[in-house]
Structures are given as C-alpha cells and as structure tokens.
Amino acid sequence: MATVNLGSIKFKWKGTYAGSTAYTIDDVVSYNGSSYICIQASTGNLPTDTTYFEQMSSAGTNGTNGTDVGTVLTTQGDILYRDGSGLQRLPKGLANQVLKMNSGATAPEYGTVSSDFVKIASGSVSGSATSLSIDGYYSSTYRNYKLFFQNIQSNGSRTDMRVNFGGSANSGSAYRMAMDGVQNAQGNLSTAQVSNWNSDTFNMTNWGASNGFGDIINLDIFEPQSTVYYKRFQWNTSTFHNDEIHTLQAQGYFHGSQNTASTGITFLSSSNTITTGDWYLYGIKD
C-alpha cells in the first residue's frame, strides 16, 4: 500500500520571487503584488511564465484608474464621486456655497443658492430715537420688498406713527392714502376710514406705549425703484394700548406721487420717541 506524505502537497510560501532560488511544485511566491504557485520545478523563470507558474491572485490597482481613494482625494474638504468612467475628485467649494447637481444632472458641483425670497437686512431699536430710517437697501436684484416689524413701541401712549416712503431722496413727496381700521376701546368697537393727501408724512396708526405690548406691522413695497409717477405700498398692523384696554387693527394702501426712485422708508413720531422694536426687510424677485 502506497504511503502519502500530506505535508508535501500543501502550499509552501516562499515570499518574494528571487531569480536565483530553485522552486519546486506547490511553492508560492509574490511578484509585483500578485501571487503565483509553481507547477514545474525551475530556477530563473519569472512567475509570469505559465510553463512554470500559475497565478493565484491579482494585484490591486495603484490609483492610475481612479479607484485608489487616497490618490484621488488630495485636499481637505474634497468629495469623492463617480462619473461615467470611475471615481473622481470634487474640490471643496467656497465659503457659503452649497452642493448641488450641475445643469446636466450628471455630476455634483458647488454653487450659490438662488432664492426668490431673501432676507437682505434686519435691525433693532434700543434706547430712544426720534425716527427710524431703513434706507439704501433697494437694488436692481429685487423688484418688490416685504418689511416686518415686531414689538415696536414708543415712550408714550397712543403716539402717532408717521411714515415717509421716499427715503432720504424724497423726503418732501406727496402721498395718497386709504386706511380702514377697527378699534376696541374698553369694549366699545369703532371703525375709521381715511383717504387724503399728505405733503410729507402720514399717520399709519398709533404706537403702543412701553407697557409690554407693541405694534406688529406687515408692509408690502411694490417697485420702489421705479421712476414712474406712482409707487404702491400696502400694509396692515396690530396695536395694543394700556394693557389691551385699547386695541387697533388697521390696514391701508397708499402710493407716492413722485417720479424719482425711492431709496427707503422712515418711521417717526410726532411727539415721542421710539424705544424698542425689531425689523426685517426681504427682497422678492419676479
């Protein structure tokens, strides 16, 4: 009965191929990152010679085909993505840019956000001011604007809120105003309707005193930079006086009869000062 030596048929790892080494059957070597097994004893024959060796495993890529991540990504902030041929590097974008798809929807890219409704300015009132000017923010980027006021107050009760919509360039213009309001004074409801001209400023409503309540204003400004004769404004406001004993809800529409572009808007008091308030100006594209 024949005797078989199992140790003689197992693979024998010989390390990196050397041309001076005599290899026998089942010797395994590494060569250029791949591994080969000897199938015929020889010396000096490269592992790529299929007469003496068979390949057991293939070397990985060296980055030339774009699959070595460490080679593709070179800078902090880079992003890896795949195009039609393999992995590609997208360099990091600039500050405040966002990641989006390109126009062909084939690859990512960095760019700026385009929005039709954007906050372009904001501010607060503190202390005592005789007027508040929101001026110089109009631009050709936006055709129309929306202005919000929150908790605007004066240092006296029932102070007239006066408004000029020309800005610094049109402080003496005339306006046509139409207002409709409802007031609750200690349980008694009353209505008011106003329509008239005013050569400089007009009263929008009454400011709340510094009693924890303030005016809330929503103002739409249409084409302020137009040089045609009329400019249009539409607003609504809610006001509290004396701890809600007096409340006023009013809305109105007005236009200015100047033929030069408006630069901004100014709020002022006929007799008192502005003590607090936050405002937010938004630009609206077509």
Task: Tell me what you see in this structure.
By secondary structure, the chain is mostly beta strands. It folds into three domains: 11-57, Seminal Fluid Protein  PDC-109 (Domain B) (Ribbon); 69-111, no CATH class; 117-284, Jelly Rolls (Sandwich), CATH 2.60.120. Helix content is 1%, strand content 52%. The strands form six sheets. Strands 11-22-13-18-19-20-15-16 form an eight-stranded antiparallel beta sheet, with no helix packed on it. The protein has a four-stranded mixed beta sheet with strand order 1-3-4-6, with no helix packed on it. It has a four-stranded antiparallel beta sheet with strand order 12-21-14-17, with no helix packed on it. The radius of gyration is 40 Å and the shape is rod-shaped.
